[in-house]
């Protein structure tokens, strides 16, 4: 056996906690769970006293390199923010800058317990390089839009050839339609053909704002979900980010097609986009995951903040519960990526994080999952493990050169 966590409080799939537990890992998988030490000796034993072991978090919708634009344009609606500020700033980016921004984001992710990301951005090969080097997991995509699609599809082909299935599927490539309002039927259908050709999932933005939703209805006589469905987008597995302004009929389509919706509560609140009907989607049979969106619109990649916000937003009349919020960020997120992860269960990929509960804001401990969702912070993470490999421990990044990335980040900020 490679690693054993001993005397740890482990969060189990049903939301219960196994105290003074032993969790064994071998060849990247969870192979032992029990109240007693495993019979097999482990090469690495980690003392879990005063700590909580839980599944690593999946950020199911983000734009990693946008860390370079954190705080660049705040306090405005999505359309103004995007078209008047973000798109012009992004015109200044290069592959090298994108790689630096992605590395900065991955450090933030690792330090706050995120083990896998679903990312959509350009210069995607540079992002893939950063993810590969970091040891994290990622579903990565180059979005298709209305212009320059010969270049975009060419870059997507290159990304598939170089990185799809990398390191035993640690990196997967998705096809990507940026959004209904930035493309059209010809692009959507081409994206589906591309996904079917390579066996990919599709990542898209969907009904993020009322304006987007209503203008689509005026143009096509259909909601964005319905028009995508008409053009076959949901014939392959889809991760649909936001889903703030969707109808009951849209929810039925997403459920019937097996699509995953990604709730981005902090970004949607900050941009004034509204609040997704998470409980309605869950009750309707939709797999709902959790995302931060990019750091330019959040301005954090801390999924603990997202879990608490998601739970609080639903608390008024249709509670999500702490266990429900935790599922969004763990097993549901892993499912949206097509991964066997997101829970402490035998045979699951050993993507785990260790939280230090010996903290004033985490004591006393009455209910572990409630404390994780309502009290814990990303800064409480002491260890982040992916496929049984420790990538971050006690403030130290084991796969990323922290000082170099921070130096490059400060240089990059000067171009905006």
Description:
The structure is a single chain. The chain is an alpha/beta fold and 416 residues long. It folds into 2 domains: 3-55 and 348-397, Urease, subunit C, domain 1 (Roll); 57-336, TIM Barrel (Alpha-Beta Barrel). The protein is 38% helix and 23% strand. It has helices at residues 78-90, 95-111, 124-134, 149-163, 166-169, 185-198, 210-220, 224-230, 248-257, 265-270, 278-283, 303-313, 322-329, 331-336, 368-374, 402-412, and strands at 3-11, 17-26, 29-34, 44-47, 51-55, 57-62, 114-120, 137-141, 171-173, 175-177, 202-206, 238-242, 260-263, 287-290, 352-356, 381-386, 389-393, 396-397. Strands 1, 2, 3, 4, 5, 15, 16, 17 and 18 form a 9-stranded mixed sheet that branches. The protein has a 5-stranded parallel sheet with strand order 10-11-12-13-14. A 4-stranded parallel sheet has the order 6-7-8-9. Helix 2 runs parallel beside helix 3, helix 2 (95-111) packs across helix 16 (402-412) and helix 12 crosses helix 13 (322-329). The longest helix has 17 residues, at 95-111. It starts with a strand and ends with a helix.
């Amino acid at each position: 056996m490679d690693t054993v966590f001993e005397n740890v409080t482990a969060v189990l799939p049903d939301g219960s906690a196994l105290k003074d537990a032993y969790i064994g890992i071998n060849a990247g998988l969870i192979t032992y769970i029990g109240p007693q030490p495993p019979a097999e000796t482990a090469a690495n034993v980690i003392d879990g006293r005063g700590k909580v072991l839980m599944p690593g978090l999946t950020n199911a919708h983000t734009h990693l390199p946008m860390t370079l634009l954190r705080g660049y344009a705040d306090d405005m609606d999505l359309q103004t923010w995007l078209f008047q500020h973000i798109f012009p700033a992004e015109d200044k980016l290069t592959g090298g800058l994108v790689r630096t921004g992605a590395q900065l984001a991955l450090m933030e992710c690792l330090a706050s317990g995120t083990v896998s990301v679903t990312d959509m951005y350009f210069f995607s090969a540079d992002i893939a390089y950063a993810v590969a080097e970091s040891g994290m997991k990622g579903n990565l995509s180059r979005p298709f839009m209305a212009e320059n699609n010969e270049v975009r599809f060419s870059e997507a082909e290159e990304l598939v050839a170089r990185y799809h299935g990398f390191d035993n599927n640690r990196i997967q490539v998705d096809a990507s339609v940026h959004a209904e309002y930035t493309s059209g039927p010809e692009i959507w259908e081409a994206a589906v053909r591309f996904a079917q050709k390579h066996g990919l999932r599709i990542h898209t933005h969907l009904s993020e704002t009322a304006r987007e939703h209503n203008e689509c209805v005026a143009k096509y006589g259909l909601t964005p979900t319905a028009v995508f469905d008409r053009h076959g987008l949901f014939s392959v597995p889809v991760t649909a980010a936001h889903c703030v302004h969707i109808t009951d009929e849209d929810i039925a389509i997403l459920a019937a097609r097996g699509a995953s919706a990604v709730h981005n509560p902090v970004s949607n609140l900050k941009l004034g986009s509204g609040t997704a009907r998470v409980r309605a989607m869950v009750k309707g049979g939709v797999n709902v995951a959790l995302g931060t969106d990019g750091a330019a619109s959040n301005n954090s990649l801390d999924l603990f903040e997202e879990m608490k916000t998601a739970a609080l937003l639903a608390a008024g009349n249709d509670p999500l519960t702490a266990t429900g919020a935790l599922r969004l960020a763990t097993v549901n997120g892993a499912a949206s990526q097509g991964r066997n992860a997101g829970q402490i269960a035998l045979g699951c990929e050993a993507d785990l994080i260790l939280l230090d509960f010996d903290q004033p804001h985490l004591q006393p401990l009455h209910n572990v999952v409630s404390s994780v969702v309502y009290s814990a912070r990303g800064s409480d993470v002491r260890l982040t493990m992916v496929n049984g490999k420790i990538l971050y421990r006690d403030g130290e990044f084991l796969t990323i050169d922290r000082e170099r990335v921070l130096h490059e980040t400060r240089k990059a900020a000067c171009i905006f």
